[in-house]
Amino acid sequence: MKTKKIITQIVLISLFALSSFSQNKDTLEHNELLQRIKNTKNEVSETPNNSADNHDGGVAISPSVIRFNAKAGNTQVKTFKIINDTKSAKNFQIFNQDFGLDKDGQEMAMKSDYKYALSKYLNISPSYVELKPHETKIISVTASIPSNDFGYIAMWTTIAVDQVFERAKLEVPNANDKTIALGITTGMGFAIMAYQNPPNVNINSVEITKLNFKKAVPNKTENGLIMKVKNTGDGIGYCLYYIEVTNLTTGQQNKFKVNQFGILPGYEKEFKYDLPKELAKGNYSGLCVLDYGDKEALQTAEIDFKIE
Question: Are strands 189-196 and 65-68 parallel, antiparallel or unpaired?
């Protein structure tokens, strides 16, 4: 009895795999998208997303966050660039992938009828682009916000920019009618976060709910401060925060760099800030300062801890 001959030809696993969602693939594919977002650090960053290319230069998208603030019943237009700084042509398709949060604040795939899905009111033009070597193209994103109740709530979505190309014929040596072959081709993709905050929503209601010290685990983790924040408003919060540490014995202060993040309404986020290894042993006071957009006030939290 003859058995089927299975030959797998793998060219290269896709750098960022973006596929259409189906009922059974929502979780896996959305996790890939979330990993892309984390890898490009584009949750709140305004810097370009960059992807390496085999040629000199690369492909980039800028900005990586689009923020609308249109009134109910109004239209607003934003743009982003796709920059092909390589020696070869690149083609991309552009589409939306909606996401929400589960009860634990973890992101999950959602359909376009989701209450907070901004994709229902977005028009992307063009949705398919062909870029010649060293060419840049401008993509328009138009938000047409309805005048009904949905026009008065915050909404969000992800704009996915996925590379497309003609698939080469899969050559399988000594193939016959019982041969099964698989080919996986290489590509690249980017994720742009799009937010809509109508003027009526409260975006200045982000508060620090907890600040803890986490002791280092030898050869695994560093000493760190863990901050938990919650958005108690009904708008998307854009926040800045920094950490200041004071040695209670010497009085020496260390102020560390400012970080930024976005947080959806009604949800919490947790951050771990690794403290520098060079901090001397002793007793310390840690101060976290959160700027959540209120012109008159800042959120602060303080904790005493010991480095051993």
Answer: parallel
Which tokens belong to 60? 């980039």
To which residue do tokens 């901050």 refer?
A: 227
Q: Which amino acid is at 127?
A: S
Task: List own/partner pairs for 266-269 with CB under 8 A and 24 or more apart.
Answer: 266/231, 266/232, 266/234, 267/101, 267/105, 267/230, 267/231, 268/105, 268/209, 268/228, 268/229, 268/230, 268/231, 269/105, 269/228, 269/229
In which residue are the tokens 């589409």 written?
A: 95
What distance in Å separates the CA atoms of residue 187 and residue 62, rounded to the nearest whole number?
19
As a whole number of angstroms, the distance between CA 229 and CA 262 comes to 11
CA-to-CA distance for 24 and 178, rounded, in angstroms? Answer: 29
Contact 242, 254 (CB under 8 A): no
Residues of the chain with pLDDT under 70: 1-56, 101-107, 167-170, 181-186
31-61 per-position pLDDT tens digit: 444 444 344 333 333 334 444 444 467 899 9
Q: Report the relative pairing of strands 189-196 and 128-131 from DSSP bridges.
A: unpaired
Is residue 71 a contact partner of residue 153, using CB atoms and an 8 Å limit? no
